[in-house]
Amino acid sequence: MSDQKLSARQEAMLEFIDSFMQDNGYPPTIREIGKACDISSTSVVNYNLNKLEREGYLMRDREVSRGLRLANRAFQGSVVRVPLMGRIVAGEPVPVPDGDFSVFGDDEAIELTSDIVDPHDDLFALQVKGDSMVNDMINDGDIVIMRPHRDVKNGDMVAVWLSDREETTLKRIYMEGERIRLQPANPMMGPIYVDDPSVVEVQGRVVAVIRQM
Questions:
Q1: Catalytic residue among 19, 41, 102, 171
Q2: What topology is assigned to 79-210 in CATH?
Q3: CB-based contact 120:78 (threshold 8 Å)
Q4: 99-119: pLDDT as tens digits
Q5: Hey, which of 124, 181, 191, 204 would disulfide with 174, CB 3.0 to 4.6 Å?
């Protein structure tokens, strides 16, 4: 690590990154760093991050969302890379051809520490579009970490594929006799009732949420 003296701005950025990672278990975005350090330009944030990287204070993976690692944080050796598979609608279902979430590139991923998610799980991430889950503190643009899981319990938050409609949505699921209720967490929206359970395919269950600032 370089002995070159850091600017006050760079010191503030490092302190914020360290604090953010301790509180959340994953790195902040460039916009979150800029907001916390009163830097309006993302290019200025990026310039200073590049300087900190050159000086050995942090490492960056530019192909990964939130791809920052502090060089002096021991827990950074246990990082879980979660592929970002696409977008999921938290609102009225929308058509997704063949039930495939993959709208981002194959190499898109986010990195989380193993104290947030189990490194042995076959996890994937989806970016939320819509506001039907706002009362569960999931907003438009947030990222949900999913575990592939078809054996769910009442109240689980799941991504479901409705094969009869060729649509996908994010909701809480409830089995009510022969009927399934897909319940939003927004009092302005009503539930989706499915009379034929065979058309509901659970793609995964939410195990963590990364909130966008």
A1: 171
A2: Umud Fragment, subunit A (2.10.109)
A3: no
A4: 455 545 555 777 776 666 666
A5: 181
